[in-house]
Amino acid sequence: MTVHNFGPGPAVLPDSVKLEITEAISDFHGTGIGILEISHRSKHFEQVITLAEERIRRLLLIPSEYAVMFCHGGATMQFSMVPLNLGQGYQELPEYLLSGVWAVKAFEEAQRLVGANENGSSSADKFRSLPQILPVREGAPYLHYTSNNTIYGTQWWPQPQAAVPLVCDASSDLFSRPLDITTHAAVYSCAQKNFGCAGLTIAIVRRDLIERAPSNLPVLLAYRTYEKHQSLYNTPATFPIYVAERYLAWIEEQGGVTEMERRSRSRADIVYRCIDENPIYQPYAASAYRSLMNATFTLPTPECEKQFLNKAESAGLVGLKGHKLLGGIRASLYNALSQEAVVNLVTFMTDFAKRWDS
Ligand code: PMP
After folding, report:
1. Distance CA 254, CA 249 (A)
2. Which CATH number fits the domain that encloses residue 29?
3. Does 247 share its domain with 318?
4. Is the peptide bond before 300 cis (omega within 30 degrees of 0)?
5. 102 catalytic per annotation
6. Does ligand 1 lie within 6 Å of residue 76's CB atom?
7. Distance between CA atoms of 146 and 37, rounded to whole angstroms?
8. Is the CB of 75 under 6 A from ligand 1?
9. Active-site residue flag, 193
10. Confidence band, pLDDT 50/70/90 cuts, at residue 356
11. Span 22-33, pLDDT tens digits
């Protein structure tokens, strides 16, 4: 039985990428040693990281005024790095849009480290919608937002606009659609959802702002360190960078981020249609804010949800349990998820709804 992975991250990888990395583990490009064993200072790895950066720049049309950096510490470390590097020494504090748990975590870390102001929040409706953007105080360094709220299944369409540069946590939708980098001071994303595996986070940051950061930051929390040493100040996450390079090559071959968006839309349409046609499934996110990445819904009772998850697992559909804070069901529909997986899911859901009703 084919197993389809709807997990929220670490998440499904393209089959061809899995094959390539499996081969590279025993012999990387005919070197006789595996990708896990090669030095980060070798010319072979240099090629990998250079190619990865080139692909990121091409896919997102990143101008040269922005640095592309390969960081450690997950997206969560960016919750600290962003305010430390980009939020100090301005007339006003950075502002944050609170659209879910991750956004709140980013905000609280900024408050703790440098101070921050809430801009808008959708906590009153339990993050079923997205916040209204309020005018940003003049002199604020940036407005931070989370482009896709992985837990609740909401997504910004279009991206927010503000009179100050934006900072985007794009951890669960980077490379799934085009993004205008030029309105941003920074964009960051962990790799384990749409373009790689856990252990790597990329940060795309305007170079002039990197230079303005205080000089006394811990060395690995300063963007300056990564920029100056091409992300090779210390040993980077060599294997996750290799996996991302291969995954990004796959995205390019498939037609880039516009094609990823077309596929995401097609996957999400099929799933939401099934939810809307079967009253047993109650969507969590308000319909105007639905995410193409994570479809969230509940069933009438906890017992019914348990049965749904058990039966889905027996049918080879795994990773559908909602986040522990929210419960319910969440189908994550990232770049590498096949059309076949989606068709199997809705066939299962339709069948489950019929049996439950009868
Ligand atoms: N931001 C968002 C939107 C996320 O979905 C996640 C993880 N699921 C994080 C941040 C935290 O990422 P990490 O576990 O890589 O620190």
Report:
1. 9
2. 3.40.640.10
3. no
4. no
5. yes
6. yes
7. 36
8. yes
9. yes
10. confident
11. 999 999 999 999
